[in-house]
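Dear colleagues,

I hope this message finds you well. In preparation for our joint manuscript, I am sending the HAD-IC family P-type ATPase (Alloscardovia venturai) sequence together with its predicted structure, so that both groups work from identical material. I would be grateful if you could confirm receipt.
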Amino acid sequence: MVSQASQISQVSRISGLSSNEVRERIQRGETNTLKTESSRSAADIIRSNIFTLFNAIILTAMLLVLITGMWKDAVFGFVIIINTVIGIFTEVRSKITLDRLSILVAAKHTVRRDGADKEIGHDDIVLDDVLWIKSGDQVPADGQVIEDYGLELDESMLTGESRTVKKDIGDSVYSGSTAVSGSALIRVTAVGAHSYAAKLTEEAKVFTKTHSDINDDINKILKFMIIIVVPLCALLIWSQIRLVGGWTVAISTGAWRDAIVQAVAGIVGLIPEGLVLLTSLNFALAAYRLAQKNTLIQELEAVETLARVDALNLDKTGTLTDGGIALDDVVVLPHADIGEEDIKRALYAVTHEEVLNPTAQAVQKGLAKEYEQSFAQMSLKSRVPFSSARKWSSIVLADGQQWFFGAPEIITAALSVNSSAVMTRVQEIADSGARVLVLAYAATSHETDRDVDESDILEIINPNARVQALVVCSESVRPDAQQTLAWFRQQGVRPRVISGDNPRTVAAIAHKVKLTGESMPRSIDARDLPDTVQEVATVLEDVDVVGRVLPHQKKLIVQALHSQGHTVAMTGDGVNDALALKEADLGIAMGNAASATKAVAQVVLVDSLFSHLPDVVARGRQVMANMERVASLFLVKTTYSTVISLGVVLLGLNFPYLPRHMTYIGWFTIGTPAFFLALAPNTRRYLPGFLQRVLRIAIPAGLATGVSVLASTFFVPRIMGWTDLAEHMVQLRTVNVAVLFVLGIVMLASISRPLKSWRGWLVAFFTIAGVAGAYIPFIAKFFQLNAPSTVQDLLLTGGVSLVAVSIWVCIRWIARRSRRFLHKLDR
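The corresponding structure tokens are as follows:
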């Protein structure tokens, strides 16, 4: 192979840019500086978590209460702080981790300027620079080859094609590709934001919020509530002011403060603030648990998306395969002159070089256990190492045996014997997606002519050699791929492989990992895909593997699956995957992925292990299935608060409780128990229609609770003969709080079933804790709770609560019967 020194001497005529030309380009901004962000900025994260519709509503209500000076009734406002802090902390923590993953060593590059080689940094490269690309370098800028010394590039990060690409003079090279062998001089044709990789990821840089059904449904409720909150709040204040004798009396006596606080009590109850907080808390907890398994959640809403996924698009390289090469088989040909053991021993020897290329590494690993010791006893006379320009390597043993190993078309072309049968067999195996090389043998090496240098003879393939065996290699499959794919199939998630490689190659690997079970995966070349979304969607129904896919086609495939109502997850590691990951509902990037790819992904598998995906999906399903179970608790409160607020205005009643009462009741009957229920194991796949299913439970229960509290507020004073209601307001509120607490516990028990488990103990604990709190002086004073202390009070509270439970049971029974009846009519 040509040495670096001889390369430099051959290109001494190329002077490169002069110092003045470099300065001119720097002044014009034609440098390789490129601002890259691995994730959202901290400011964006903070802004998106603070400025929300929910925060605006709760903050306004809190400020109204604080104006009155009754700060104890404003404790509900702390949910803003807690909810915001959870979101910011989790997402910033993910950002910090992702930024650490994206820190790269600032590599130096050699350019030719003023007729000499000079080492400079990545950002100091300018347009038209003459740049050396050597084996192991990552190409820092786009360019055109002007001198070639066997350069081969791995362009998989850009194209998805895993095979290396040989470059010749005049060929283009793109930033982001990696030199795997050889070297070349290139003239830089595009730098910075104008490079191929930068243009490819430009569209992906725009941040889009992850879609969340829960948040969408909550926002629907909030938007609906905004329509009625303002007029209802005004009506509540007006009704409470009227009860105390009008604005003049209210202002002179300070009763306006109570009116505002009571109005806010009605408004706050309409907002499912606990559901918002619990959603954020459970998303954050799921993200934390996944982080412990090296899975990074960049946006909390992605946890929900995990539960909805039913289509999984997999990139082959880095997902099903680990990017390496594995030895599959050594096929000894029928006409072989040497025994199988000797052939494998020679194969081990010819690939046992000081610097191993990927194929040699695979052979060495595949044969090491059996032939490593025997190799130590072999006597080698000479060796010709592998060269990407030559495409073969050879050894000569002490007894004169000569072995050649390399590309079939190169070696067979140099042989005197007809090798058409060998090449036919090579092609048959290659069609299955394997990489095939040949091992040839000559009994004696060339007789050395006295006038010919032996080193020159060794550079020539002995024409008398005969091919003894075919060496079959393929991409190294991840050991966890088959089990992981089986899990997805069992869970109703259909995996497809979308790759830039040859579809036959990809299909063979997909079959090896049982992508479709025992059946052979159906494949298609992306060049045969139609151009419209609907036509692609039709084709994909019968396709498991798509090969030769271009970046824009990956995005088109995701759009096609969306058109069929699928929730799509997409894995990837290359820049070519960025657009598809952004388009997918859930983008999943490997930890070793390009920075641009990790920046647009919602999930990053830090250690690049495909086997983490079942944990990721299962955790999302657990959160969503349990959130649906407990969401009805929160929307019951929204429903009965609406009923009570309207009833208070229409019936001219005093508001039956204070905001702090709602905080206390919510703590023991909704928020805290719901948090524990949301942690229970649950792998049920999420289905659309979250809000409808929850409302079917919440509305009847909320209606029953609201009617019960209004009935208590209206009838109890009349039954008890309380002529001066102001004197008995504390007692009346005690009864109403008891009704809310009892019905809250009944509802909690209903959604916690079966109770013959830890769930029953959970309900019992919060029942006892809620009652006990009313008898603890500090708590009772802070929340203005007045526990029944006389027999009369106990009988009154117990009797009203019993009636309320009866009303609750009746309305729930009627609602269930109505649903069954309507369902029969639909049939």
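For the figure legend, we might mention the following. Residues 753 and 759 are 7 Å apart (CA to CA). The chain has 30 helices and 21 strands.

With kind regards,
E.M.
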